[in-house]
Write a structure and sequence with these properties.
- This protein is an alpha+beta fold and about 110 residues long.
- It has one domain.
- About 40% of the residues lie in helices and about 10% in strands.
- It is built from 6 helices and 2 strands.
- The chain has helices at about 10, 35-40, 45-55, 70-75, 85-90, 100-105, and strands at about 65-70, 80-85.
- The relative contact order is 0.12.
- The model has no long low-confidence stretch (mean pLDDT about 80).
Amino acid sequence: MLEIGLTKAQLLEEAPIEVHPGANKKPFVLGEPLMWEELILTLPTRMRELHAWYMKASASKDVVFRARIQDRHFHRGMDDIWIEFKNLYDLYHQDALDKSPLSVFCM
């Protein structure tokens, strides 16, 4: 019980086990990998490719990147959406997202 940090009641399912949000998340630092290295290899191909692109793009110390949207996406003409790299981190950890990466994902 001491090794895993649970009480006897929690082990016997008599008491709830409190999970701290973000307990095993790698903190976001611009230019560093978005996830632990051993987890990156388990990602689907396109997610690994996006992560590799992020590593190259974040080396310039920019904090945002541009995504071009076409008229057919929202019927408001061509435009750009600016997405913070922090939002990619949230995407990889399945946290709350800003609407801009969701808009790009839906396209």
